[in-house]
Amino acid sequence: MTAGPPRPLRVCLDARLISGVYGGVEQVAISLAAGLSALEDGNEEYLFLTYAGEDAWLRPYLAGRCRLLSGPPPPAPGRWKAALKAAAPPLRRAWHHLGAALIRPDAAVPPSDGTVERAGADVVHFTHQGGFRTAVPSIYHPHDLQHVHLPQYFAPRVRRLREASYGALCRQARLVAVSTSWCREDVIRHFGLPAEKVQVVPLAPALDAYPQPTEGDLAAARERFSLPDAFVLYPAQTWPHKNHLGLLEALALLRRQGLAPPLVCTGHRNEFFPVIQRRARERGLSDQVRFLGYVDPLALQCLYRLARCVVIPTKFEADSAPLWEAFRLGVPAACSAVTSLPRQAGDAALLFDPDQPGEMAAALRRLWLDGGLRRTLAERGRRRAAHLTPDRSARTFRAHYRRLAGRPLTEEDRALLAERPEL
Q: Model confidence over 329-341: pLDDT tens digits?
């Protein structure tokens, strides 16, 4: 009897996210979906695991060999959690400290509910920082260890949970994937992982997968958001480490010097937003700063194209998606000189100390006023990000999927696996 063709390699990608809440991690899943959907060669199937009823954000980017795999609905907060959130601050603080002591490292990661095993997955790819215990070979993205470097931004319970779950998922994984060399060194050092287990796989920004705006779209966005003729763009959720407060101090300093560039911020407005809003009022910047909240992909594309420049004042970043997005679209940028950013930026962005408003203000002044500098940085940025495409990221991960499943490798696979990006 003649053997038939081998069964397709079946990869399950964990995309259990709620749109608009997870920031750049959502863009990682979209970029992978778009890249894998466009692959026409090979013998693979890609199942994107989503929460039941929470897949509309991903559905438009799936085609070809990619399809949805619906899991249970997202966990709903219990009445006790809602009551605790509304309780007095001393009670909340007591829970965070008591909860930290109750978290056992061996129980930080839940067991699989069997969805991926029943689907016949050969490899599981955890695209975000969560996951579950499984015997299926896996790839895990810790993305960043911010809780180690900036513990003041995390409650004790959250720090302990992150430490326990990230470590367990790193140890379970056959491959720990990170997007920059800085993050690779950080993860290897902190968790004591074998160097060969942690590999840099650059993540392409999701912009290539989004609809390309027309002139009509740009005009509509300008009217919809009442945008000024020129503005500075900062796309980031309002977490404390994103340093909107430092940016406001820099803008207040510039304003006292007679320069008032409008600032437009996008991204989910979380529980820290009222602090930022209050600081803007205290510094007299309410008429200069706009917080649009989460915007759809087309609107984000328009905002990048209409902005004069992008600023990224973050205090911590393992890999900045907004910086790559600015580079891809030829928008000049200034960013913090911390963690992975100097290596990522190279000579294509102005750098500043995020804890020094004067340095940030000086960089913004140069970027805002010097058209020649903006053109130079825009061209350098385009060249620096030219290799970051969803197709290349998808082909690199496909090579890893084949390797982990013991499938034959092509010459292209071997070449991609041999690369050692120095981002």
A: 999 999 999 999 9
CA–CA gap between residue 127 and residue 28 (Å, rounded): 7
Instruction: Give ∠ CA 213-48-195 in degrees, rounded to 5.
Output: 100
Mean pLDDT of 175-197: 97
d(CA 252, CA 261): 10
Task: Record the pTM.
Answer: 0.89
Q: How many CB atoms lie within 10 A of CB 382?
A: 15
What are 346-393's pLDDT values in tens digits?
999 999 999 999 999 999 999 999 999 999 999 999 999 998 999 999
Token pair in block for residue 311: 């600023």
**Which pair of tokens denotes residue 303?**
């905002």
pLDDT of residue 334: 98
Residue 400 has φ and ψ, to the nearest 5°, of -65, -40
Cβ density class 230-256: b for 16+ within 10 Å, e for less: ebbbbbbbbbbbbbbbbbbbbbbbbbe
Q: Contact at 8 Å (CB) between 51 and 107?
A: no
Give the sign of the dihedral formed by CA 231, CA 208, CA 31, CA 76.
Answer: positive
What DSSP state is assigned to residue 268?
A: -
